Amino acid sequence: MIHLLGRAARQLTKKEYADQLIEATHLLALAYRSAGLLWAARASCIFAMASISIESEDDSELRVEIVPTVQLWAWITLELRHLPDFLEAIQLLNGMLKALPLADESKALLTKRLKDFDLAFASQILNFTAEELKQMERMPAVLGGLSMFGSQTALLYALGYEAELREEGSLPAEEDAAAVKELLERLASQPVSEDAQGPLIVNDPGQQTYASRILGMTIEAVCQGTESSILVAEAVLAASEAFFATAGELEIIPHTERVSVEIVEDEAADEPSFAFDQDEMRGRIVWPAGRPLASFSANGQAQHLLIEVSATVMGATCYLKDPRAALEKLVEDEAVLDRIDIISMTGNSYHRFLSCYVSRLSDKATLTDETFPIRDGRPQIVRKKLEAPVKAPADGDLTSANPKPPLGDNHRKMAIRSVISSHLWDQAGWKGALYGSSAPGAPPLLGLIFTNEDVARKIFAGWRERFGKMDEDDEIHISIVRGISEEHPHHYVVMITSKLPGLDELTGTDNVIIASRMQHMQADSSINLERFLTAYRSAGRYVLLPAILRPNGPELVWDAAIGKQKLTLRGADEIGPGDIEQAALKMPVG
Predict the structure, then answer these.
(1) Distance, CA of 176 to CA of 377 (rounded, Å)
(2) How far apart are CA 240 and CA 211, in angstroms?
(3) Got the DSSP string for 298-337?
(4) Is the pTM of this model over 0.70?
(5) DSSP state of 548
(6) Is the pLDDT of residue 397 over 70?
(7) Are 470 and 443 a contacting pair, CB within 8 Å?
């Protein structure tokens, strides 16, 4: 759907095909949303709204078909936790309910949808962190002005104003505090809140972080909150989603948990530039200051930049069987350039429809002088597992008439767990493991032997930054698998991977990819390993550290050491189909 509709939209840009273009981009937004690609869905939806607005000028009145498109935009922005856009959409829908010549049935449906939005947002608010609630301290009156009384009540309650809500009658007088808390916790526990992912977006001045889940990877765009940098950040995520949208058919396997791209404006820059550090999985976009992304002169540069960023991220974060063939297929067959072309015009489309390039939460806050500071004694909302939760209906959701896609088609339902920086491990030259001790009674040593000291240090520095000098939660999962060869009884496999996620972490996830590295140890004797295991069982812990292969033997790097507690020892005959060590049995032996 994404492939076909992206190509169709590009070929329907002539004036005589305006209605078909609107339909194609609306359907494209639905397809992106069904795939969990919300930034690309938002961009397509905004393009469709702008197109309807342009066509409405011929009739001197807004077309009623704008209503379902704005409703779709509202659901998308609610799931993105994009508060400025969501509140803009609610304000527009309220106005359309009053001003557009809708049939009675359509008015009733839109009224119901607005109530759905109110309850869905109330559910989200009750899950806000304390820091997120602080950004909402001036919003209660704004929500009331938008007739979002459920959200207004939820916000005031979460901020700690239960007594005031009782005084004004917003909370039933006959219900005690425990009953009210139970009712609101049930609202907070609705699945609609699980659909919302990523940082809370307010678009206010200062550092802002936006995020997307693509093939299970988290891709972040960080900017300083200026209009131009926000537009670039939004476009980077939308373009990356469009670029990866059909990647599942290209034998692409992601191996990286997180990528970050920083957007910096530079007055001295004549044109945009992009640099990427594979070791850190961080990119940096330098954008000419004072040059709006939405300007006509910047459009061509923007397209080139977005393609460069997307292709670079794919190459750095994924295993591609044939990188050149995959890129050619994306460009030639998958119409990815056509999809990115639509995204590069999002700023213009937004301005065409809303007369501004960026909406900010602070703009809404100026509409009221009332502030409700968060209180220390506010109630603590705890999500509960509901037996039969009911999800608020969302326009464009796949229904029984449109069957759900196969597992793996929704990018937000995929996850990656990786303590392995593949780029670094490819360079480090891991050759094996050694065992030793530092003093009688002290934890034994497990050294990972590398040939490249600089890269080995980077690997351990990254681990220490993530997990500390002591891996308290055993995020680095190390297994020793024995009995892999009858012919060579002392051979074994050392496996390094991520700790398996718990059931709570897997909620809402269909597929989990776990990156690992393994080394087949072709030992002639088990003496050293047994000595290590005996000392480990006695101490209950061990020290993991790099060892650099020198001409005279391995040299331990003590200042990079990490304390560990858990070590998994398995026999090949003990490993079942669901065990992560199953991969070790597939290694060649001999």
Answers:
(1) 17
(2) 11
(3) HHHHHHHHHHHHHHHHHHHHEEESSHHHHHHHHHHTS-HH
(4) yes
(5) E
(6) no
(7) no
